[in-house]
Amino acid sequence: MCIRDSYDVIVIGLGAMGAATLYQLAKRGVRVAGVDRYAPPHDQGSSHGDTRITRQAVGEGAAYVPLVLNSQRIWRELEAQSGEALFEACGMLMLSSSQEPTRGHGTADFGGETAALAERFGIEHSLLDAAGVRARFARFGGFGDQATGYYEPGAGYVRPERAIDVQVRLAEQLGATVQIDTLVTAIDADAQGVRVQTSSGMLTADKAIVCAGMWTGKLLGASVDGLLKVCRQQLVWFELDEPERFAADSPVYILLHGAADTDSCYGFPPLPGENAIKIATEQYLEGCDPDGVDRSVSQADIDALYDAHVAGRLLGVSRRVLKSKVCTYTITPDFNFIIDAHPQMANVTLVSACSGHGFKHSAGIGEALAMQHCNEPGAADLSAFSLARFRS
């Protein structure tokens, strides 16, 4: 690693977005430095927890579909370069307990939008009635005769810690500078460039790309902070009483069983060597201070999750807990990303917040940002994520 004082680009934060951006810039020969307050991959932000769902028909909106498809291509390229298994295309089942629209990530009819985008983009999928769900996925036993399902074979999960580690390591091999356990305390920017003050000294660059996740608001000030809400989320791994139910044809899943955003959960098949499945919910009502996140998961919260989302719905799953984790989502008012120039700081690009569905797009976003920086044609369109929508 060659440590310089000045770079073409400084990437602040090396989670999902930052690691991908660092790698894609280094791949193109850009003089780039990456800075992280911890040692990525770590469990202090949003990019951990063993698995993250990736879906091709992204019901949050059409602008996401090219990004997730590009990301899946890049995961395969990274696997070939590193020898690490990053992406498991085990399929995804989105299952609703009724034929009425149900919400998800701010989308009024999450299942309906997902199916519509699959049709629009020619993504392989199938629609299932209750009998079809029972015949193919009997483990989901608590959904009645009104249940509807959407199955997408090209979906699955990504291993977030591995993906971050691979991209940071490859970036370093390509000449990137990486400073870990280094806190960014201030950013000063003008038309001539940016100066990034860290706990290890000053770095300068032509441009900075801020991928700081839940710390973005504190770092970039009121003009951005007012659009961001940090929400604590809980992940629980329940042990299996009947592992044979999950031994074959076991997809990732999103279970929708009510009209509210909180009436849902998502989960994963057991990983090799683990007799447990990871299940999580999402909550957006309670915000938290990024520097004071409660990292413990109480037994009361575990019991509530099991009773509301597992009992009578997922067969063969016990109440015994293998482990639990806490992560954070940084939410915008409309649940969509912000990827744009900072409104007051010249030469600073903001890449946050990802509103709980960012990891699946991160590799493609890193590629698009690097292509834009290098003036390469054909970059994925990021204009849907501009700040202009909030100003209007």
Question: How would you describe what is shown here?
Answer:
- This protein has 392 residues and is an alpha+beta fold.
- It is 26% helix and 27% strand.
- It is built from 10 helices and 19 strands.
- The protein has helices spanning 16-27, 65-82, 110-121, 130-136, 160-173, 216-220, 222-225, 299-310, 359-373, 388-391; strands at residues 6-12, 32-35, 52-54, 87-88, 92-96, 126-129, 148-152, 156-158, 177-179, 184-190, 193-198, 201-210, 229-240, 252-256, 264-267, 276-280, 317-331, 339-341, 348-351.
- Strands 1, 2, 9, 10, 11, 12, 18 and 19 form an 8-stranded mixed sheet that branches. It has an 8-stranded mixed sheet with strand order 6-7-5-14-15-16-13-17. A 3-stranded antiparallel sheet has the order 3-8-4.
- A hairpin with a 2-residue loop joins strand 10 (184-190) and strand 11 (193-198).
- Helix 1 (16-27) runs parallel beside helix 9 and helix 2 crosses helix 9.
- It is globular.
- The chain starts with 5 loop residues before the first strand and ends with a helix.
- The mean pLDDT is 94.
